[in-house]
Design goal:
Layout: E1 10-11, H1 13-24, H2 29-38, H3 42-47, H4 52-61, E2 64-65, H5 69-86, H6 91-102, H7 108-118, H8 124-127
Parallel strand pairs: 1-2
Length: 128
Protein backbone atom coordinates (compact mmCIF):
# COMPACT_ATOMS: atom_id res chain seq x y z
CA UNK A 1 0.00 0.00 0.00
CA UNK A 2 1.25 3.47 -0.84
CA UNK A 3 1.74 5.85 2.04
CA UNK A 4 0.06 9.25 1.78
CA UNK A 5 2.45 10.80 4.29
CA UNK A 6 5.82 9.11 4.93
CA UNK A 7 5.77 10.20 8.58
CA UNK A 8 2.46 8.44 9.24
CA UNK A 9 3.08 4.72 8.84
CA UNK A 10 0.62 2.12 7.66
CA UNK A 11 0.45 -0.76 10.15
CA UNK A 12 -1.33 -4.11 10.18
CA UNK A 13 -4.79 -4.22 11.72
CA UNK A 14 -3.63 -6.65 14.45
CA UNK A 15 -0.89 -4.25 15.57
CA UNK A 16 -3.41 -1.40 15.71
CA UNK A 17 -5.67 -3.59 17.88
CA UNK A 18 -2.69 -4.34 20.15
CA UNK A 19 -2.05 -0.57 20.49
CA UNK A 20 -5.67 -0.02 21.40
CA UNK A 21 -5.71 -2.81 23.95
CA UNK A 22 -2.48 -1.71 25.61
CA UNK A 23 -3.65 1.92 25.70
CA UNK A 24 -6.89 0.76 27.36
CA UNK A 25 -4.75 -0.94 30.00
CA UNK A 26 -2.97 2.33 30.76
CA UNK A 27 0.21 1.83 28.73
CA UNK A 28 1.96 4.97 27.54
CA UNK A 29 3.95 5.17 24.31
CA UNK A 30 7.08 4.40 26.33
CA UNK A 31 5.32 1.44 27.98
CA UNK A 32 4.26 0.05 24.61
CA UNK A 33 7.79 0.41 23.26
CA UNK A 34 9.21 -1.25 26.36
CA UNK A 35 6.69 -4.07 26.08
CA UNK A 36 7.71 -4.59 22.46
CA UNK A 37 11.39 -4.72 23.41
CA UNK A 38 11.27 -6.79 26.59
CA UNK A 39 7.80 -8.29 26.89
CA UNK A 40 6.64 -11.78 26.12
CA UNK A 41 3.37 -13.14 24.90
CA UNK A 42 1.10 -12.47 21.97
CA UNK A 43 1.06 -8.66 22.31
CA UNK A 44 4.85 -8.42 22.36
CA UNK A 45 5.11 -10.69 19.32
CA UNK A 46 2.57 -8.54 17.44
CA UNK A 47 4.44 -5.37 18.34
CA UNK A 48 7.73 -6.89 17.16
CA UNK A 49 6.14 -7.86 13.82
CA UNK A 50 6.79 -4.32 12.53
CA UNK A 51 10.17 -2.54 12.45
CA UNK A 52 11.06 -0.51 15.54
CA UNK A 53 11.19 2.78 13.61
CA UNK A 54 7.67 2.09 12.29
CA UNK A 55 6.47 1.30 15.82
CA UNK A 56 7.96 4.54 17.13
CA UNK A 57 6.58 6.64 14.25
CA UNK A 58 3.11 5.12 14.77
CA UNK A 59 3.16 5.93 18.48
CA UNK A 60 4.44 9.49 17.97
CA UNK A 61 2.79 10.57 14.71
CA UNK A 62 -0.27 8.34 14.56
CA UNK A 63 -0.88 5.66 11.95
CA UNK A 64 -3.14 4.37 9.25
CA UNK A 65 -4.47 0.83 9.37
CA UNK A 66 -3.52 -1.40 6.46
CA UNK A 67 -6.51 -2.06 4.22
CA UNK A 68 -7.83 -5.55 3.65
CA UNK A 69 -8.02 -6.85 0.07
CA UNK A 70 -11.75 -6.14 0.04
CA UNK A 71 -11.24 -2.57 1.29
CA UNK A 72 -8.53 -1.97 -1.34
CA UNK A 73 -10.89 -3.26 -4.03
CA UNK A 74 -13.70 -0.97 -2.79
CA UNK A 75 -11.32 2.01 -2.69
CA UNK A 76 -10.22 1.30 -6.28
CA UNK A 77 -13.85 1.15 -7.41
CA UNK A 78 -14.60 4.44 -5.66
CA UNK A 79 -11.57 6.04 -7.32
CA UNK A 80 -12.77 4.97 -10.78
CA UNK A 81 -16.31 6.17 -10.00
CA UNK A 82 -15.03 9.53 -8.77
CA UNK A 83 -12.83 9.93 -11.84
CA UNK A 84 -15.80 9.13 -14.08
CA UNK A 85 -18.09 11.53 -12.23
CA UNK A 86 -15.57 14.36 -12.40
CA UNK A 87 -15.57 14.09 -16.18
CA UNK A 88 -19.37 14.14 -16.50
CA UNK A 89 -21.39 17.33 -16.36
CA UNK A 90 -24.72 15.56 -16.21
CA UNK A 91 -24.98 13.58 -12.95
CA UNK A 92 -28.47 12.37 -13.84
CA UNK A 93 -27.06 10.46 -16.81
CA UNK A 94 -24.66 8.67 -14.47
CA UNK A 95 -27.44 7.91 -11.98
CA UNK A 96 -29.67 6.54 -14.74
CA UNK A 97 -26.85 4.33 -16.02
CA UNK A 98 -25.98 3.16 -12.50
CA UNK A 99 -29.57 2.17 -11.79
CA UNK A 100 -29.74 0.20 -15.02
CA UNK A 101 -26.45 -1.55 -14.30
CA UNK A 102 -27.42 -2.28 -10.71
CA UNK A 103 -30.65 -3.94 -11.80
CA UNK A 104 -28.68 -6.08 -14.26
CA UNK A 105 -30.83 -4.96 -17.16
CA UNK A 106 -27.82 -4.26 -19.30
CA UNK A 107 -27.13 -5.19 -22.84
CA UNK A 108 -27.75 -4.16 -26.36
CA UNK A 109 -31.28 -2.83 -25.84
CA UNK A 110 -30.17 -0.63 -22.93
CA UNK A 111 -27.38 0.78 -25.08
CA UNK A 112 -29.83 1.70 -27.79
CA UNK A 113 -32.24 3.30 -25.30
CA UNK A 114 -29.41 5.28 -23.70
CA UNK A 115 -28.19 6.53 -27.08
CA UNK A 116 -31.66 7.57 -28.19
CA UNK A 117 -32.31 9.43 -24.94
CA UNK A 118 -28.91 11.12 -25.10
CA UNK A 119 -29.64 12.29 -28.64
CA UNK A 120 -33.21 13.28 -27.69
CA UNK A 121 -34.69 10.92 -30.24
CA UNK A 122 -38.13 9.68 -29.25
CA UNK A 123 -39.26 6.32 -30.58
CA UNK A 124 -42.09 5.28 -28.20
CA UNK A 125 -41.71 1.55 -28.87
CA UNK A 126 -38.03 1.71 -27.97
CA UNK A 127 -37.55 4.50 -25.43
CA UNK A 128 -40.45 3.59 -23.11
Amino acid sequence: MTKKNPEIPVIPRDVAKAFGYLRSQGYTSYGITDHAATGSGEMAVLLRSIPLDTLMAALVNGYEIELTAEEEHQKALEKVRDKYMSKRSDARRYEWMSERLASKQTGFADGIQYTLRTLNIDIPEVTD
